[in-house]
């Protein structure tokens, strides 16, 4: 009876991604002991976030990837979209990096503002702050998205972007500290994942952060249209 029930328990727990119950008699995990299987454990927080947000990243990658960054309008829109998204996402990331990683987060909003000023772009409306930041794990999820978003800039820099010949050098694109934040965040995330509420909070906040960037991308296009109308 006991043996017949244990595999079911094991499968259920794997599906739920929670560890199996401890045996009350011997303090070993029931299912692993009886099935001679490796101990299942909750995936670490980095794996959780990677898996949950992979489709969101692919969509955003396609959207930003379609911009002609070798033209002024393309790079201006890229920076506008990042500025709109970052206005919401930056404060919790800055606080998380200082508190948990002991790092000073580069001032991305200021860099973006300087870049947009240099291009003669007007002030942006960042919209309402809708992000829930106080749930357990939320700041970690937001930091994963913002810190990870810096990695793609390496690729963009290698490809080159509009402005170098015209004397424009983007502070946001060229900031070299991106790897430091990511290198510190990865082991932090790798060491977590056991607390279900932290996991859920981080996953939800990471997904919402990707959505914020997606909405920012759309809003930056609306801005283009408004400008064309005003001039036209
Ligand atoms: C706002 C837009 C973007 C966001 C929020 C974002 C977010 C992320 C995140 C969270 C990661 C870490 C993934 C992981 O290893 O777990 C990442 C990595 C990466 N992203 Fe993006 N991304 C964005 C745009 C882009 C774009 C446009 C490109 C294409 C040029 C790109 C290329 C990459 C690459 C190549 C990596 C892996 C870098 C490495 O492992 O060294 N991303 N991004």
Write the layout of secondary structure elements.
Blueprint: H1 2-16, H2 30-35, H3 45-65, H4 72-101, H5 108-118, H6 138-149, H7 151-159, H8 171-174, H9 178-190, H10 196-231
Bound molecules: protoporphyrin IX containing FE.
For the record, the CATH class of the largest domain is: Mainly Alpha
Q: Could you report the average pLDDT, rounded to the nearest whole number?
A: 81
Which residues form runs of ≥5 with pLDDT under 50?
Answer: 1-35
Please describe the biggest sheet, giving its number of strands, its sense, and whether it closes into a barrel.
none
What class, by secondary structure content?
mainly alpha
Tell me, briefly, the overall form. globular
Total number of helices: 10
> What is the CA–CA distance across the termini?
79 Å
Helix content: 55-70%
Q: CATH topology of the largest domain, anyone?
A: Heme Oxygenase, Chain A
**CATH A-level architecture of the largest domain:** Up-down Bundle
Hetero groups: protoporphyrin IX containing FE
Rg, nearest Å: 22 Å
| CATH homologous superfamily annotation of the largest domain | Heme oxygenase-like
Number of strands: 0
Give the ordered list of helices and strands.
HHHHHHHHHH
* Percentage of β-strand residues: under 5%
Number of domains: 2
């Amino acid at each position: 009876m006991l043996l017949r029930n244990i595999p079911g328990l094991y499968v259920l727990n794997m599906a739920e991604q929670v560890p199996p119950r401890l045996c009350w008699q011997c303090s070993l995990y029931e299912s692993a002991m009886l099935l001679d299987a490796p101990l299942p454990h909750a995936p670490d927080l980095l794996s959780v976030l990677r898996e949950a947000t992979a489709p969101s990243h692919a969509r955003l990658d396609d959207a930003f990837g379609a911009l002609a960054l070798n033209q002024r309008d393309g790079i201006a829109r890229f920076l506008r979209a990042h500025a709109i998204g970052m206005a919401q996402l930056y404060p919790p990331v800055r606080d998380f990096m200082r508190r948990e990683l002991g790092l000073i987060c580069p001032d991305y909003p200021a860099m973006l503002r300087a870049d947009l000023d240099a291009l003669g772009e007007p002030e942006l409306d960042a919209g309402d702050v809708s992000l829930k930041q106080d749930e357990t794990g939320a700041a970690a999820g937001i930091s994963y998205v913002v810190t990870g978003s810096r990695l793609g800039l390496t690729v963009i820099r290698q490809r080159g972007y509009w402005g170098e010949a015209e004397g424009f050098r983007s502070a946001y694109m060229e900031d070299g500290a991106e790897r430091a934040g990511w290198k510190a965040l990865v082991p932090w995330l790798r060491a977590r994942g056991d607390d279900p509420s932290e996991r859920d909070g981080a996953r939800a906040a990471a997904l919402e952060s990707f959505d914020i960037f997606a909405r920012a991308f759309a809003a930056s296009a609306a801005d283009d249209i408004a400008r064309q109308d005003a001039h036209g």
